[in-house]
TrEMBL record:
Keyword tags: Heme, Iron, Lyase, Membrane, Metal-binding, Mitochondrion, Mitochondrion inner membrane
Identification of the protein by name: Holocytochrome c-type synthase
Molecular-function GO terms, alphabetical: holocytochrome-c synthase activity; metal ion binding
A GO CC term attached to the entry: mitochondrial inner membrane
Bias-annotated ranges (Polar residues): 1-12
Pfam families, alphabetized: Cyto_heme_lyase (PF01265)
The protein's Enzyme Commission number: 4.4.1.17
The organism of origin for this protein: Phycomyces blakesleeanus (strain ATCC 8743b / DSM 1359 / FGSC 10004 / NBRC 33097 / NRRL 1555)
Keyword Zinc: no
Catalytic activity: holo-[cytochrome c] = apo-[cytochrome c] + heme b
Region (Disordered): 1-23
Top-level taxon in the UniProt lineage: Eukaryota
Amino acid sequence: MPAISQQPQKDQSMALGKDREISTIPRAESSEKLWVYPSEQMFFNAMRRKNWNPEEKDMGVVVPMHNAVNEQAWSKILEWENMHKTQCNQPKLLKFQGRPKDITPKARIRSWFGYTLPFDRHDWTVDRCGTKVTYVIDFYTGKRDPRRPEAVSFYLDVRPAVSPSGVWDRLKWAWQKGSFV
């Protein structure tokens, strides 16, 4: 991941927070034990670098939401990882890549049946005791709660990437859960 500046943009209209939150996600191949989330300023700068048009005033809501969604994604990855009993018993996140323009085959097929396409996609590579395993995460807008219309909802479709071991894991998961993934 490229170093992201904490410096304000030249045309920025308000100061943004520079504090960073420590995640619960173990980090592989680093002196830091856990991943550290970007500050409001770093997040804003990254969005600008990616040619998005963020609003400074939104960063106080967007950044905590981003962090919570990533924690949820990690939790879902751990559900998959629990199928593997390993000696080290602690998978770690090696790297991640946002791929918002790349639609997964599963998401594309679902769209043919009227489902909405995901608004984002990530590929997360996990170190499982020396074995690299990639997970695909499709991010969808979730259903609105009529009792809390202001609340934001997300649905994450997390699964192993297609590979021999990924397909095997999906089959085992379907067998254990009694559903096709």
